[in-house]
Amino acid sequence: MSKRVLVVDDHVPTRALSRTILEAEKTEQFQVFEAGTGTECLKCVDKEGPFDLVLLDVNLPDMDGYSVCRALRHVDKKVPIVFVTAKGDLKNYTAGREAGGDSYLVKPIARAALRSIVSLFTTIERSKRPDFGS
């Protein structure tokens, strides 16, 4: 059974790179969904969810990724959310954790790092994941 991953980034080449890396995986099959804005992300989750993982950019054109993350947590408390952004300092990492994110991946995306983090978060059983906001 394939894992469902939602890639949220306003930068089309970044979404394409993430898709290419995930679809090239030999050990796991991924069904990749894409959104370019926070609004598109929330609509996609509503229409296509649930997902096994959300890769979420912090800088989106209509709202920041932290706001999107908080909104996602109202819909699905257990989906892993990994921020993927160029902002790699500690205050941004802390803001991501406070918004309900599970981890952080700094751009430019390294193939090995993306594969590793996706593998980690898509193999944890949903029932064993922490229930944020409870």
Structural description of this entry:
Helix content is 43%, strand content 19%. It has 134 residues and is an alpha/beta fold. It has a five-stranded parallel beta sheet, with helices on both faces. Strand 4, helix 4 (90-99) and strand 5 form a beta-alpha-beta unit. Helix 2 (38-48) runs parallel beside helix 3.
Write the layout of secondary structure elements.
Layout: E1 3-8, H1 12-23, E2 30-35, H2 38-48, E3 53-56, H3 65-75, E4 81-85, H4 90-99, E5 103-106, H5 111-123
Parallel strand pairs: 1-2, 1-3, 3-4, 4-5
Supply the key terms:
5 strands, disordered C terminus, alpha/beta, 5-stranded parallel sheet, 19% strand, 134 residues, 5 helices
Question: What's the average pLDDT?
Answer: 90
How would a crystallographer describe the biggest sheet? Answer: 5 strands, parallel
Into which percent range does the helicity of residues fall? 40-55%
- Assembly form of the protein: single chain
Give the neighbour order of strands across the main sheet: 2-1-3-4-5
Low-confidence stretches: 129-134
Distance between the termini: 30 Å
Q: Any idea what the shape is?
A: globular
**Topology as H/E string?**
EHEHEHEHEH
Structural class: alpha/beta
- Strand-residue fraction? 15-25%
- Global Rg: 13 Å
Would you report the number of β strands? 5
What is the number of helical segments per DSSP (H or I, 4+ residues)?
5
Question: In short, what is this structure?
Answer:
Strands 2-1-3-4-5 form a five-stranded parallel β-sheet, with helices on both faces. The chain is of the alpha/beta class.
